[in-house]
Amino acid sequence: MNDTTSSHEESSFELNAIPAEEVAQEITRDTEDAHVDPATPPEPALEALVTRWRVAKALERLRVQVNQAFPNRSKASDGTIGDIRHQSRASDHNPWIVDGGIGVVTALDITHDPAHGCDAGKLAEAIRSCRDSRVKYIISNRRIASSQAVGAAAPWAWRTYTGSNPHNHHCHISVKSDKAAYDNEADWDFRSGGHEAVAAADGETMQEQLVGAALDALPGMADRPVFERLIDAQDEIARLLSSYAVDARPIRAEDAQEAARPRFEDLKSEYETLWDSCVIRSERAASVAWHVARLQQNRERYEQVSAATGAPWEFIGAVHALEASFNFQGHLHNGDPLRARTVNVPANRPLRWNPPNDWLSSAIDAITFEGFAGQSDWSIARVLYRFEGYNGFSYRTKGINSPYLWSFSTHYTKGKFVRDHVYDPNSVSAQCGAAVMLKALNFGGQT
């Protein structure tokens, strides 16, 4: 890009003396991820050797507005420019645009801090929904949206982000390389313009939109042999399911108000009463029936785990549905991909993994690790107690029945933990509860 005649010495920095608050923290933590749209990366030929740099004025304005809107927000994952290791790579976190002899960084990371009002996912969705003409692309929570069409994906459509950094601690905004875009200091509309879209961004709705967009863009649209198209689609669907299983996994129900773990004896009669009075919601009956059919279809595999642990196959299947979205390419513990030990809680399981590295070995470890193997009491009350303990007892402090057990039944209407330690009283679980699955299965002959 050619230099312009403007000068910005008053707001620029020496390239070898970067202020700590400007360093893109997530870049330094994950050196393998350049935070770029893989379909439209910066042009390496445009990268220039400069001694001074500055932040695009459009992003400076956005940062000021975000700071004003959320004055107490964390900035732990904020940043604009990459560190020395990052400067040789094609990325908008590098000053690859030159304006008046000064490099311009056209990317901004904003920390996800919902506890202080700055929800990076909502911010990203609001900016996307407003279709701001300055935006090049946005990355947030394993998804990316470009202002231009990419392959079969329409402009502004969310699609799966394949970089190693999931962008769940921050969102990334890149602006276009035209000066009219990157130095446009107009206010950003992220508080009102995207209100309806922001409301839809929470929970499973946004994830379903992402998967839907990715399915629309599956490879194989070109005129190629059917076999090649099917194999490509199969690989993409497996990857999407793994990503969906990790994102859809229920957030553990725990917060600062959680009391000591209740005794089973104190909850036994409550569980029995809830079980006896459980009614599946009519509008959810078809979905519950689908879950039952899927459990029955996978029964043989669950029975293999049951034979090794003593846990009922129905219990194992319900855990598989909730923790891994029925994905046999993910750990039963939490849905993390089987290609390595678990990363999320519980982390580093199984301890012995290579070899073996198959779903059965992982599933046996999950049931054993939770203390369920070798148990003799599998009465319905004890089963429900174990399910609630698996996810956490903090829904009791919110005055509602746990959706982990009762979602899709008349015992649950709304309220769920949407992120670690963050409870939303109006969010509704889109997963079938464990107790509801067992009820539909006629577990133990108890309906």
Q: Gist?
A:
With 447 residues, the protein is an alpha+beta fold. The chain has helices at residues 25-29, 57-69, 120-130, 179-182, 195-201, 203-216, 226-248, 264-277, 285-297, 299-309, 313-324, 359-369, 380-391, 403-406, 434-440, and strands at residues 13-14, 52-55, 97-99, 102-105, 107-111, 135-140, 143-146, 158-160, 170-175, 416-419, 422-424.
Secondary-structure topology with pairs:
Elements: E1 13-14, H1 25-29, E2 52-55, H2 57-69, E3 97-99, E4 102-105, E5 107-111, H3 120-130, E6 135-140, E7 143-146, E8 158-160, E9 170-175, H4 179-182, H5 195-201, H6 203-216, H7 226-248, H8 264-277, H9 285-297, H10 299-309, H11 313-324, H12 359-369, H13 380-391, H14 403-406, E10 416-419, E11 422-424, H15 434-440
Parallel strand pairs: 2-4
Antiparallel strand pairs: 1-2, 3-4, 5-9, 6-7, 6-9, 7-8, 10-11
